[in-house]
């Protein structure tokens, strides 16, 4: 068999649409994951045992259920009780909830890693616990969590390929259509391999650069 990628040229725009949909879904899901992760991380560090246990239950539950099962529950299960959500929204919500469980671990680790000296300095300055947390603790925790949150985003990009199972034509969904139209699945999936590898590499590189910059700024502020 001869590899002939030229047959895909007429379909590049079609595949690009799928790639853009993948990035859009992942970008929205990352925002949702970070917001949810912050709330859960705060709950897990709460002095209330019940709140802390509920937060732990959420993390433990969604980290131990296959994503495809979660996705099918939202898309195929909820309509049985009268809740209908379109495929794109379902994908974003499912990715956000699953990603939030992992994001909460990263943010919680960032919160627990903060130097006690910073907290003591804020207390001496007369800042309330709420102001200290929202203006000092949380910003620092998010900065130090950039790299693990980047891993959450990369995992989302890879996991988003499963969204094609609920009729969402993101990158993998579009590739399936092209493969069936051209009868050349080998070439289509070679390109798909390269595109996913390129996307995750670029995200990883961007996260590394952002992490270095934020760390440099933070060190300058502390010194």
UniProtKB/TrEMBL annotation:
One of its GO terms (biological process) is amino acid transport. The keyword Ribonucleoprotein does not apply. It is a multi-pass membrane protein. InterPro entries: AA_ABC_transptr_permease_3TM, ArtM/GltK/GlnP/TcyL/YhdX-like, MetI-like, MetI-like_sf. CDD domains: TM_PBP2. Pfam families: BPD_transp_1. Residues 19-207 form the ABC transmembrane type-1 domain. Its main location: membrane. GO terms for molecular function: transmembrane transporter activity. Keywords: Amino-acid transport, Cell membrane, Membrane, Transmembrane, Transmembrane helix, Transport. One of its GO terms (cellular component) is ATP-binding cassette (ABC) transporter complex. It is found in: Cell inner membrane; Cell membrane. The chain crosses the membrane at residues 20-43, 55-75, 81-103, 149-168, 188-210. Belongs to the binding-protein-dependent transport system permease family. HisMQ subfamily. This is Amino acid ABC transporter permease. It comes from Devosia insulae DS-56.
